[in-house]
């Protein structure tokens, strides 16, 4: 049985926009390292394996933090209307991701190193203090299938934004083209990593996003992958079989595979492709993700 995670957002009301020149683009690397160590201490207490620091996830998270602080909002969505998995996919990242977002409003934020580090840890403590059933951030931190984490930070006079984005990296993929056309043949090329086997591939569909106003961003909350999808399961005959049809693919030596991506909806939109993996007879879980924006 396949399970899809729902990620919970920390959404705040729209804030006053800031001048880009007054914003700090990041924090010292050692601050992110200290937060990584705290994340792994929390995971150890929960008997979870440690996660590794991902510079790629961190760079993409930093960019979203800067946009949120500059324009005075807190949301998983960006102003272009992209959800997190689309933001990371468009940055060329192929991890399956779960994002925690935190924001602080302060008219004169203290940028001293001591206060900056303490505020980062305060954000993390707020995630870990959650209790069921409203504990989506905490569950993301402690998810046993996560292998990597990126940490994004932006701060300045309006306050601070922080992101912890967790990644599951169980397959190496060639990212799909950022943009495609309906008539284009698009093939997913990848390789599952040691310790897991290919379970299936899901192709999710949603309409092309549209820009969001600050009021619309303030009204956003949780996000998930689209409801509309078709899943193709790995079969011994080298065929993928979904609820209604089958799709030809190739499994190659060394865990490599080729999968012609079907734009099964037959219309423009975002087609997000998720690679399901399994290990030790467990339920399948998403181990990689990529997406393409499809036009006529």
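Q: What amino acid sequence fits the structure above?
A:
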């Amino acid at each position: 049985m396949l399970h899809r995670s729902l990620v919970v957002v920390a959404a705040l009301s729209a804030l006053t926009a800031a001048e880009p020149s007054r914003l700090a683009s990041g924090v010292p690397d050692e601050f992110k390292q200290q937060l990584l160590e705290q994340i792994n201490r929390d995971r150890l207490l929960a008997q979870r394996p440690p996660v590794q620091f991902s510079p790629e996830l961190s760079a993409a998270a930093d960019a979203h933090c800067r946009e949120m602080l500059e324009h005075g909002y807190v949301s998983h969505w960006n102003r272009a209307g992209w959800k997190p998995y689309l933001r990371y996919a468009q940055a060329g990242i192929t991890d399956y991701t779960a994002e925690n977002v935190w924001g602080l409003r302060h008219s004169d934020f203290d940028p001293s190193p001591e206060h900056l580090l303490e505020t980062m840890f305060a954000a993390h403590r707020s995630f870990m203090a959650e209790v069921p059933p409203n504990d989506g951030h905490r569950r993301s931190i402690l998810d046993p299938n996560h292998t990597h984490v990126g940490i994004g930070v932006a701060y300045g006079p309006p306050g601070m934004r922080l992101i912890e984005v967790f990644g599951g990296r169980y397959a190496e993929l060639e990212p799909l083209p950022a943009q495609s056309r309906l008539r284009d043949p698009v093939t997913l090329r990848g390789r599952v990593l040691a310790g897991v086997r290919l379970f299936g591939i899901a192709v999710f569909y949603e309409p092309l996003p549209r820009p969001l106003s600050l009021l619309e961003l303030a009204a956003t909350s949780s996000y998930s992958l689209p409801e509309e999808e078709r899943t193709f399961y790995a079969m011994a005959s080298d065929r993928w079989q979904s609820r209604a049809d089958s799709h030809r693919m190739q499994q190659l030596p060394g865990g490599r595979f080729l999968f012609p991506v079907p734009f099964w909806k037959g219309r423009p939109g975002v087609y997000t492709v998720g690679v399901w993996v399994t290990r030790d007879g467990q339920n399948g879980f998403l181990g990689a993700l990529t997406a393409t924006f499809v036009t006529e």
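Q: And what stands out in the fold?
A: The domain at 29-168 is CATH 3.40.33.10 (Pathogenesis-related Protein p14a).
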